[in-house]
Amino acid sequence: MALLPIISDWSQIEFPHLTLVWAGSASEMSASDKDALNKATFSIATMCRPITLRTLTKDVFGDGTTDNPTVDVLRFHPNLDLIKMRATVEDWNKSTFPFNPHVTVGPVGTWNGVSPVMVAFDRVAFCIGDDHQEFRLSSDMREEW
What we know:
This protein has one domain (2-144): Cyclic Phosphodiesterase, Chain: A (Alpha-Beta Complex), CATH 3.90.1140.10. The longest helix has 17 residues, at 31-47. It has 145 residues and is α+β, with helices and mostly antiparallel strands. It has helices at residues 31-47, 80-89, 141-144, and strands spanning 2-5, 18-19, 51-61, 71-77, 102-107, 118-128, 131-136. It contains 3 helices and 7 strands.
């Protein structure tokens, strides 16, 4: 499950995203677990507004192995909205890495330019392999009435 940025012209990858939770490989998940996680993604979309995160720094993640290539990333300061989203799905977490909000920019050395001060996210995606289903984060309906 991942948040998708509104603008990502600073990224060199095809699907820039901020992973909220990695629930394991698709082959290890049952159909009912996939369905439940998809429903949780939709729930986040209906309960949460778009968020804007402050960029902390450009950094490098990975150890250069095939399973963990070295990449340039933008790291973000987590705000309360992001922490709430993460808490909603934390029980699904199968990652060995701590939650460290970031978006991959591209392979190490591809970064060129100034980091955006803020990055806004307006969608959440349920991803299995290269397939993903996107849901727009909701706005407060009371304001529209």
